Amino acid sequence: MMVDIYDFYDKMERNNIMLSFKGDVTSELLTSILQIMETKLDNMQEEPKTKKKVYNVLVECLQNLYHHMDDIPKMGVVNPETGENSRSAIFMIGKLDNQYNIITGNYIRTQNVEGLRTRLDEINKLSKEELKDYYKAVLNNGEISEKGGGGLGMIDIARKTGQKLNYHFMQIDEQHSFFSLNIKIAQ
Amino acid sequence: MERIVIEGTPKTPTINFDMSTGLLEIKGRSIPENSIEFYKPLVEHLERYAQKPLSETSVNIQLEYFNTSSSKCILDVFKKLETIAKGGSQIIINWYYEQDDEDMLEAGEDYQAIINVPFKMIEVND
Question: Do B72 and A67 touch (CB under 8 A)?
Answer without folding.
Answer: no
